[in-house]
Specification:
Length: 298
């Protein structure tokens, strides 16, 4: 009896369920797909101050519906100004509500820049972060001499003409497993700088350029630092192979400045089929469903 009590003590809400842990009777785990415009928030993660964050918006609304404190865990924390069309979060609760009540109720209580797109029940073995096999981001660039008023804060404006072919060639060096120290923010808390990029695709449609990166996980500012380097190459200021040189240096000071967060979107998170995730379109919603992708990893 005392052994069972000790095992129960090890369990914490929302944690990764490990062998020997006992999931509390009457508790359920819910998974939400969330979309948000990051320009309204100082990132996803809740902070100790009164700073507006996506996590705080979600937790405040969900706690009101559950009539108990709710804490959510996300698949990937996004920085200030960064968006998501497919952010995945989960939470544990004793509250029993219809699934629609969670989404409709929370959406009615939240800032309009955040929207819960779907809700499903998942087994306690599901964890939004640790169960994910990959994450996919898209970086949207508006490349034109004049800025766009309608794309303000939802795409990154680049005034100088970009050589997309050179950017494609340079991006090839990033595919695979590498030490990405040169593209890692100084405040990054990851235990290792090694990450595996599974795929990079680039598409161009008139003045829009979209770069898509799929990896097992990302370091803090990793994509934005990569984009800053690709911009430099796209301008013609550095040769294509400069990316390879930077990787080998393993020194953040060797790369260029961090690109803006305006055009960055978390658009997909991959999970095993056993969890029954709902099919979805890869966003952001203003992009055409079909883009002329060039897969540089092939």
């Amino acid at each position: 009896m005392s052994q069972e009590f000790n095992l129960q003590k090890e369990y914490k809400r929302n944690c990764e369920l490990r062998p020997g842990m006992i999931y509390p009777e009457g508790m359920q785990r819910l998974c939400l797909v969330v979309e948000y415009n990051g320009s309204h928030f100082h990132g996803f993660q809740a902070q100790s101050t009164d700073v507006k964050t996506v996590q705080h918006e979600l937790q405040t609304a969900l706690s009101s519906i559950a009539d108990e404190p709710i804490v959510v865990v996300c698949a990937g924390r996004t920085d200030a100004g960064v968006h998501a069309s497919y952010q995945v979060v989960h939470f544990d609760t004793f509250a029993v509500r219809p699934l629609k009540a969670w989404s409709m109720g929370a959406n009615a209580r939240m800032n309009h820049a955040v929207s819960i797109q779907s809700v499903i029940n998942v087994p306690p073995t599901f964890h939004s972060r640790f169960s994910a096999h990959y994450r996919t981001y898209r970086y949207v660039i508006y490349n034109n001499n004049a800025r766009s008023a309608t794309l303000s804060k939802i795409a990154t404006w680049q005034k100088r003409p970009l050589d997309v072919d050179a950017m494609k060639q340079a991006a090839k060096y990033l595919v695979g497993e590498h030490d990405f120290s040169s593209f890692r923010a100084s405040r990054c808390q990851a235990k290792t700088p090694v990450r595996t990029i599974h795929r990079i695709r680039i598409a161009q449609a008139q003045n829009l350029i979209v770069l898509e990166v799929r990896a097992n996980a990302f370091l803090h500012h990793m994509i934005r630092n990569i984009m800053g380097t690709l911009f430099t190459i796209g301008y013609g200021d550095k040769p294509v192979q400069w990316v390879s040189d930077i990787l080998m240096e393993k020194d953040r000071r060797k790369a260029t400045a961090t690109a803006p967060g305006d055009g960055l979107y978390l658009v997909d998170v991959g999970y095993p089929e056993e969890f029954g995730m709902l099919p979805h379109s890869v966003g952001p919603v203003f992009l055409p469903d079909q883009l002329p992708w060039i897969d540089v990893s092939q």
